[in-house]
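Incident review: delayed structure delivery

Summary: a single-chain prediction request sat in the queue longer than the usual turnaround. Root cause was a stuck worker, restarted by the on-call engineer. No data loss occurred. The affected request and its eventual output are reproduced below so the record is complete for anyone auditing the incident later.

Affected input:
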Amino acid sequence: MILVGNQRGGVKNLVLHLLKEENEHVEIHEVRGFASRNLMGALNEAYVISRATRCKQFLFSLSLNPP
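Output delivered after worker restart:
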């Protein structure tokens, strides 16, 4: 299995990438602990929280590529 991890700072680009039709398999199991019920809203909330901490790259994305 190939694991590729990246720190990220841009919510909009990540969400648009994940929700593209051309992706072979992307599954959102649950969005929990946020006022928003969708992915874009939840990640925007995380962004707002990160601004209070002066964090620059508040997201970590992991790509799993099984054989």
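Verification: The mean pLDDT is 79.
Action items: add queue-age alerting; document worker restart procedure.
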